Structures are given as structure tokens and as C-alpha cells.
# Entry
Amino acid sequence: MINDTIDPIKYPLCEDIIERINNQFINNGWITLYDETCTYAVLISNDKLEKTKCSDNWGLNMDNSHPTIIEFENTVDGYSQYYEDGIVPIVTYQSEKSTYPKRLRLSDEFVLFYDLREVQNNNYIDYHIVDECGNGECIARITSNQVVAQVKFIKEFIAVKGMPLLIQFETLKDSNKSLKDNGFTTQNYKLYNTDEYIFGYSLIDGDSITTYKSCALIRGKVWIIPDKKNIKRLWNYQDNRKEKFIIGVDENGDHIETTCDEKLLPNLFTRKEEEPYTLSLVFFKKEVLSKYYENPGKYSIHEGYMNAPEWWLRFDNDRTDNYIVAVLVDLGKIPYKEQQHWKHYNIVPPVDASISETTQKRWFEGVPCDTSNAPDHLFKFQLKKTNDLWKSKFGWELFKPLAEKDQHHLESLHTMLERDNDKEFDGLIQSITKIIIDSLNEKEITNTTDSSNNNVISFLKSKDCSAPKDLKGGIAKFEAFLISLGQSNCEIIAQFKDIQELRSTTVAHRKSSNPDKKQQELFARFELDKLSQQDAFNKILLRLIDNMKFLQCIAEKK
# Structure
């Protein structure tokens, strides 16, 4: 806000412009750089500013915010990046031409200075600054008739460049009442100026030519002087703080917390006995991964680690309990905002605190090994192995790759994070159905089925079909294929049917508070009448793992 505040009442019809002058065209932390009704801001050199302080004329018109070629008698005599030396546009303007609309742009220098990323929307363009988490924050917006930016970035930018910001404004405000009817008196054009602004103002009645009864004209400039205290290194848009995590309890049962800052931690060889060190284990509730599983387009969780746009973290998740384990030094390498998220799920290590055998071998013994505990990771491993062996045996994959928009079903498949959560359980059953049943390679299955096999013929007759391709559903076609291989009454077919039925009961239809006998029998088969949803889903995965191994045996037979 300017020091010499102006009284808006003294400038009838232009009260809103006066308020904007008082606030240096800043509103709730956003500054207007361009407004088609009256405003255009530029950067100006200090010597140019001193000259422009005595006049309400604009230093640079928006139509001249482009390079200038100086020509004389068809000879190029000179070139200027900007229309006038010492005046630099922060917003450039291209007028409408033919079928091409007008275009507003932020200066490339400002965009590159903060490494901003352009985000196109239907009615506007946002410019995002990206933090260490990969999250974008809008710091500038361009609409069809306005350009605004967060003032702290503009003030830092002009402080670094050492150039004042000159906000130029001009507008005509009219009224359908005469000055007399409004209770105003004529004011001839007069300049008003201080060390922070200059503007001219007049208030007059209309005439027989104009369509208004009275009007006010205001034109001038406000300038914001660079101030080194506004340099906050926003271009380095990250938070370097480090969180503290619980790594144990003392003899009184109080939490032992320590920083995850590697610079402040001893290592394995320099620490004193029982002293926290870089490889101290930190335990978390399994739900810490919820936000990442819910956004598979941004995060990908694997066995042993996870990836985010700007960071990654290794951890021990090859477990059958409800914990995730990381080490202090690794937590110190993820963004502070993410450290705060993990801190929320940080717990005292359980009595039997340990890492999995898989993680022990990888982290501390340097021995490469496959996943061996977590059902979700084992399932993904066995699914890939089955497809690889199947293709080697038959020349085609049993389970077709998911479409791009369905990839998240496999990538985010996990053991349940909470013991009972209908939404999570339904989503996981939906994913399993997509990955397994909906992905059965029906075309190759039917083409490879031996239709002359007597057992297949009997099966087809029981289904009132004359050929495998006429069977309804992938499960029936797969059953005919297995029968042709001499595999009748396979447990895998029964499980596939149960999963499909469970999907129809829990996902595709509304739940009933009073399940019928058929539904009760289905729930009993999955032990949902006895187990938590978490334990029941784990059993589904373990059964599928066994069935994948059964399929691998088929593929390995000579």
C-alpha cells in the first residue's frame, strides 16, 4: 500500500481505481499486470523512472511490447529487443489477426527465472511453480482480459533485476446522470503526484454527441521500487527442514525421537552404543501408503520402494503384518511435506520389531532376492512368471496386458491397508477381476482348445454349445481349454467363478443388509463371515498364487 493514501471520495466515478492505486493494484496477495480495461505493467530502469515521474503519459503501450526493427530506405539500420531501451514488458501482447485471436503471454524471462510450467485450461492459462514433491502451485494466471501474479514473486523478480515495476492505468468512467444530478461539480484535468504515483483526473458533463451524461477520465502510473528484503529465494522453491521420527522408547516409556538429517546423524561405524544412527529403523502404520495407492497416475509403489515425480523412497513392505519400515537416512532424503505425512503414521517399534528376510538380504547382506512374504507382491511376481511360461509353451500370454487406462488396477493392487473398509475391499475385488478374469485371452484359448477331445465334446454338450467359441464367458472357455489338456474339475475354475460372483455381489450391485442364502454361501466360501476383509483378501491372493503355480506346472509339462 502506498504511504500517501488517496481519499477516493475526492475523485467521483473513479473511486474503484483510486482504491487500486492505494493498494498498488494488489488484491489478496495478487497483483494485476494487465487488464484490458485500464492497466498495463512494465519494468523500467531507474533513470527512465525519474523522467516518467513528471508525466502521466504511459512509458510503453501494450501494442509495442515486441521487438522493433529500425529501417531507412529499405535498409535495416538497427534492431531493439524492446520498443524502447530501459523499458521491459513483463506481459507481451499480440493483437487479433485474421482468424487468430489476440494472445497474452508472460515474459519468457520471468517464466524461465522461476522455471514455471504452463497449464492450459478452457478459459485461462495458469503458470505453476513446482516444489520438491512434484506439486505445482499457481503463481500467475492469464485470462482473455487479465494477467495477474502472486505479488511476492513479482517483488522478488524486480528486486533481483534491480528494476522498478511501473503500473500504468487509464480509463474513462461514465454515468447516465449529469454532474448536477450526481451532486458533482466540474473538475478540469489536473495532475496529482507524489514519490509513489502520478495521475491526471478530470470530471465533466457529456454533450450532444456523447451517449453519457457525465464522465471522469483518469490516467497515470504507480511504481513499486525494488527492495532487497523481498528476495526470499523463491526460485529455489523447496523446504529444507527435517522432521523427527520415533525410533523407540526410553526406560520410562517415553518416545525417543531423532532427526532424519544425515548431517546430524552418526553412521554405523561412528555411533556410540544405542545411539540413533543413519540406519536406525523407523516403523509406520501400513496406512501411510493410502494416499499413494489412491493416486497411481502420480505415484507407483513396488516391492521394496516407491517412486514419485521428484523423489523416491526405499522401504520394507515385503511383510505380512501391518507395518512399513524405513531407515532414518532415507526418510531425510524425501521432501519435508512428505516427511510430515510419514510422521503422522510413525509408531513405536513393536516388541518383536524386525525387518523382513528379503530386506535383510538386500540392505545389509547385499544379496539379490525375489519377494517372499507379501501376498500382493507374490501375486504380481507369479502372474508375470505364469504369462512368461505360458507364452514360451503356447506362443501367447494367458492373461492379456491391461489397457493403458486400466493399468492402475495392477500397479496399485495391494493387500488391504485397513482391516475393514468396504470401499477399499470393493476396489481390490474389482481390480483382481480385471487383472485375471476380464483379461483371459479368450481368442487364443478357443483357437487352441482341442474340439475333438471327447471330454471337451461332453462339456460343450452340457453347455448346449457346439464349439468352444460359442461358450459364454472367458471362464467357461478356459475351463474347456483345461479339459482338453486333461485338467478337469480344476480348483482354479472354482476360484475364478467365486471371484466373479463376489465382484457382482459387492461391486456391481447394491449391498443388502439382509443377504440371501446364495450370498451367505458365497461370503462363507471367502470366510467373510469369520475373517476381516483384510484377512479374507489376503487369502484370496494366496489362493491365486497357488493357482498361478498350478498353471506354471501345466506350461512346464513337455
Remarks:
- The mean pLDDT is 90.
- Residues 244-370 form one domain.
- The CA atoms of residues 360 and 366 lie 9 Å apart.
- Residues 533-556 form the longest helix (24 residues).
